[in-house]
Amino acid sequence: MALGFLDRSRVVAPAGWSRWLVPPAALSVHLAIGQAYAWSVFKPPLEKYLSLSGAQSALPFQLGIVMLGLSAALFGTRVERNGPRWAMFVSLCCFCGGFLVAALGVLTKQYWLVVLGYGGLGGVGLGIGYISPVSTLIKWFPDRPGMATGIAIMGFGGGALIATPWSTAMLDAFGVTYSNTGVVTGVEDGAIALAFLVHGLAYAVFMTMGVLLVRVPADGWRPAGYNPVNDRAHVLITTANVSAKNAVKTPQFWCLWVVLCFNVTAGIGILEKAAPMIGDFFRQTATPVTASAAAGFVALLSLANMLGRIAWSSTSDLIGRKNIYRLYLGLGAVLYLVIALVGNDVKIVFILSAMLILSFYGAGFATIPAYLKDLFGTYQVGAIHGRLLTAWSVAGVLGPLIINAIADAQKSAGKSGPALYTTSIYIMIGLLVVGFVANELVKPVDAKFHEKTAAEVA
To answer: How does it sit in the membrane (predicted)?
Structure first.
């Protein structure tokens, strides 16, 4: 198939190309598609305008994460074959097109179009855009894979840092009004639809920069002074390569699937409902949270999510992937317990605990490609990563479902404040403990799954 300008052969870097030009290309895509983490800003206006429950308003986000994992798994091998420029362009078309379909859905009050557009079509853009720069950056930075994947995936976590205040200001300007306690009191016709339209067009322009800038290294390229033998001696669990087909047959793959799934479930539930959750927690206290303060909380979580991806994943290059996941899962469970025990007594404890949990959540995403490289080599790490992201699909349904369904049920039972979320929090603690055990079970990959070397074939 002739891809022309998008073909992989057109993006091979010439001699002397600086590898530090590639991270900005990755960030232009990930900062855009990372808008998904700001979905909670749209939830209250949609619930008011279309008379939706909390669980219903979560559907576009949930489907988007499901489609992210499925499209990453289905198209992972094609992304490796066609190259990052093709993948970024397809991501642009799907993600931005999803906003336009969602705008039409709100304008016509057909909520299924919002779900299908933002969640379905947009979710495909999320998946392809998410994996497109990861394997490319690992190839450019074989000496620092944790840092490289942290750079790429940091943008996805930081996308909401930009989108949250931008989206909030836009909704306010277009006709969404709030009470002093952050409850939506009115939504003018066209306000949400116009916000979706502007998002789709603006992100299309932003993502185009990545499409134009991205490059792949020439065959056999290595950074100056890089010695893969020394790297393997200190960091990697195995020096062999494993194909994507064989990787899914190993217990290591499924242990990491559980680790990723439960780490994501524990974080994504909070993130998807961040704005209304902090409002519920402190609404009946002496210092209730306003809409702008709730948006600020979402931004703080996004900042923690973003910085955790680069800071903790870079740390994993020094202390190892298994040790860093012990931190994510073990300390994450303790922090959830702190939130459950403190409740709404001390607001700063709630905020700081949530920020640390979200830093581990984001770091889990950033570190997992390097963990896969350690276990399975670089041969088809992008395709393996895509298959592993089906864990994100499950978590994308599970996390919001647990938080929203239990909160809705508790609200119907007449409960309020932290009581809306206590049961969910203890469930998250249990899931993190299971993930901790799964990480402990990760061992080197059996040699029977390794690809044969040229000498072995001969």
So the answer is: Multi-pass membrane protein
